Amino acid sequence: MREVAVVAFTQSEHSGEDQGLLETEILAPVIGEIKERTGLTRFGFTCSGSCDYLQGAPFAFVSALDTVGAWPPISESHVEMDGAWALYEAWVKLQIGEIDTALVYGFGKSTQNDIRAIFTQQHDPYYLAPLGVDNVSLAALQARAYMDESGVKEDDLRAVAARSRAAGRGNPFALDLPDPADGAGYDVAPLREHDVAPLTDGAAAIVLAAGDKARELCERPAWITGIDHRVEPHSPGARDLTRSESTRIAGEKAGAAGVEIAELYAQFSHEELILREALGLGDDVTVNPSGGALAANPLMAGGLIRIGEAASRIHDGTAARTLGHASSGPCLQQNLVCVMSGEK
Amino acid sequence: MGNSCAVIGVGQTQYKTKRLDVSMAGLLREAARRALDDAGLTWRDIDAIVVGKAPDLFEGVVMPEVFLADALGAAGKPLIRVHTAGSVGGSTAIVAANLVRSGVHDRVLTLAWEKQSESNATWALTVNSPFTTSLVVGAGGYFAPHIRAYIRKSGAPEHIGHLVAVKDRENALRNPYAHLKIPGISREMVESTPMLWEPIRYLDTCPSSDGACAMVLASEDAAKKAPGKPAWVQATSMRSEPMTFSGRDNVSPQAGKDCAADVYKQAGIADPRRELDCAEVYVPFSWYEPMWLENLGFCGEGEGWKLTESGATAFDGDTPWNPSGGVLSSNPIGASGMIRFAEAAMQVSDRAGEHQVDGARRALGHAYGGGAQFYAMWIVGSEKP
């Protein structure tokens, strides 16, 4: 395959409160910064990820495009998914060999919504959605199944949350969340409040470049050595919720073995544990040094941020081989794994 | 550059106002099964799935590809959901083609659909976010002023749109999947229908349809094993421009011109009217045929309506446009672009049945979306590029 690398990553200072900004206003500075940092104002391809339901109106990506600047006209596309899949689409396009750079971004504003009500509408509309089950309740079912199977206790989940929040406090872009409180109540048992990712507004952007263009734009490019994504059946009753088969396949195809740092898009504490097992990550692998989604969860940018954070560890020389992961759908239904290396 | 890619299977559903006999999943299965059968393949042979539809508000399901994963045969495979407004059917096909052209996969199933009867598309298009231009009342409310501007600018007589409305519906009579079949349709009939958004009359506009379209795209090796004649992808392009700024030409947007120039260059085409044997072009309101004839370089500025009036774009004209009946005859919005792409492929691989254009060897598939700001096009041919 053609050499393609993440050469730049920018993100907003994510917010857990409505700051009175439109989605596009959250996105605009991020795009401005990445253009300034790379010195690029035109890209071979542009691709974004967003979700109309967060805005409550069709075509969220249209106004974002106005923000990004598309004049003279640009070569551009959009996935109604996390921006990580936009990155995948851009990576595929770069593989053809006709272009050398791509701008990828994702954005979402969660604080003005009832996210649970919205994502209830993501389920099968004929059978599952009418039951009114929300994404946190489904995650709790998965957590219960996983704990029963693995022997993991609530304290183990709490440890994941505590580590994520502590790391998030050291990350200027994540939320400033306290250690899990002693008497933290259940959100939906067995998940306590700290086991559920916070509502967050935010945006992120990545520039991909191929070959010499990557070397020109970045001192230490994060070369994508493998990227793959897989989906599973939708119904929670149709799959084994205690493991993530799609992550396992994607991890194998992308070559997850041997990474030093993994940024996992776990929106619930137990998901991190399931993902670690699926990817075969040992105790020697540092997971979510950024704090992960439990410390800041801008929807539709969350997975892209994981790839960006994992790439940043290569950019700054702290790691040679890292992994970024993204997820979509209830109970980790769909997963993407991107493995990056400082050496090519 | 890139590897060769061919369409080796096409599947469409019946297009109609309400498909009460199938769920969304069932609708997609119908199209997918037909495409797989056409390609002589089973679900197991498919490496990845690329699916597209227009806004989620159209059916009221958030990111519906997630619940449709099983029906799409995607379990254990990569699945991508593309959304680029009305152009999405075209861009979905291009994303799928890129998966083959890049060498990442050998056989990709791509589908696009809309089941508009499960919601209300005009309502969904009317909701607008703060500080952005409202589409007023559905798509017609947005496009009518641009059509009026075209008429004023080009000096076209008022009946040109009606000619297109008649021509495309006459073509639809030959297409077994078409939604609107109006035997004996005439200019008088179109002119007698109510004015919806001046100058757009009822029969100058497209229907709201339920329907899906699917294609199997394949690498050169995989195409060799296909039972039918492949349609080779000779060029693909996508272009976008902002919806609103004062210097924008809403009548003939630059992104459309650039996108067309790009596919012609890739395919080595200097004169599209002469070198393309037919075209499937996204014409949801009849007046968009003359407008796009100019935008796509089939004629000079202000000449599009003359070409339409001369009969050049008719089924037996020298440059047939929308031999399938086009968007004016069937409009499952998210699928409409892919239908254009698929119909172009059908023409160059002798799959078009009664609406086959004799000797078609090279065809254009075109889609546009948003405020006429998103474009996706491909050129397919019977010869490998």
UniProtKB/TrEMBL annotation, chain A:
Listed transmembrane segments: none
PANTHER family: ACETYL-COA C-ACETYLTRANSFERASE, NON-SPECIFIC LIPID-TRANSFER PROTEIN-LIKE 2
Protein name (Swiss-Prot/TrEMBL): Acetyl-CoA acetyltransferase
TrEMBL record, chain B:
InterPro entries assigned to the protein according to its UniProt record, in alphabetical order: Thiolase (IPR002155), Thiolase-like (IPR016039), Thiolase_C_2 (IPR055140)
Pfam families: Thiolase_C_1
GO MF term list: acetyl-CoA C-acetyltransferase activity
Domain Thiolase C-terminal: 244-380
Keywords assigned: Acyltransferase, Transferase
EC number: 2.3.1.9
Cited NCBIfam families: PRK08313.1 (NF006180)
Protein name as annotated: Acetyl-CoA C-acetyltransferase
